[in-house]
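Hi W.,

Here's what went into the run:
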Amino acid sequence: MSKVVLIGCGNVGMSYAYALINQKTRVSELVLVDLNKEKATGEAMDLMHAVSFAPSKMKIYSGDYSDCNNADIVCICAGVPQTENQTRTDLIKKNYTVFKSIISEINKTNFKGIYLIASNPLDVMTYLTQKLSGFPYERVIGSGTILDTARLRYLISEKIKISPKSIHGFVIGEHGDSEFIPWNNTLIGLDKASKHLTKNDMSEITYNVKNSAYDVINKKGNTSYGIGICLVKITNAILDDSNKIFTVSSYNKEFDIYIGQPTVLCKKGAKKVLKLNLNKDDDLKFENSCHIIQENINSLNLK
Ligand code: NAD
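Here's what came out:
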């Protein structure tokens, strides 16, 4: 039986909450916190009305930061959303201020669980959470490139009509424009991706993975369902002590940043980061992504 506190009840936060009540999960208590308390209360009531038909029992209510005391996971989806023609990095300064106010409140509690971050720019906000909380690196996790990875598997699956569950490929790097697909490490069943996809197919899929978020935002104003279910996958992987591998944003010691990389998740958080066996080109792409995240962090002049 586990407790999750959700900070930020907007599109992303509520998609996470709704996906959570629709899946089998160890979460038995879900607390909603938002600047807009009325909204958090209304959302909690609406979800509670749905729980009678949900697969697991769950207590859902709106609360405040003191609820973090005995929480297993605090998931932060608060912030300013990415809007049309705005890059994720444009959000950095605004969301830093938001995070300072949130984490200083949580620091006053006895919270000893795991931080799960969804707000953008994702890798920077995850890094800032660790700095502001002083938590051990492994107990701070960002959603990283898990959503981009889901998009990759969906797009390959559509192209070759093979289930996304049989496609073993990952998007790694920054959750942003410098993310990339290590195609040499992408397997379809036991085959190299190149057995099923032409170079053109791979370029088209790469383009679509990178631009899906912009495309959806241009059409409906935000993205939410995909990230909602990805956050549930991470939550369950942690609470089930599953040792599952996801491309979450975890700490990279070499570059002193958080970045999307294949990471083993267990109840203690990020148990282990898998060593990347990339070719030279992809190594350079990963380094480039690391430098971009570092530059974004440096733009805040933290020291
Ligand atoms: P939204 O505007 O719908 O919701 C944000 C919520 O945060 C609002 O309800 C707002 O009241 C609340 N909030 C703001 N400041 C707060 C504070 N100090 N304390 C508590 N609550 C506060 O935005 P959204 O569409 O839900 O997006 C949220 C974040 O998630 C954005 O940063 C967005 O870019 C990001 N996002 C990430 C991914 C991903 O893959 N990680 C995908 C989509 C969106």
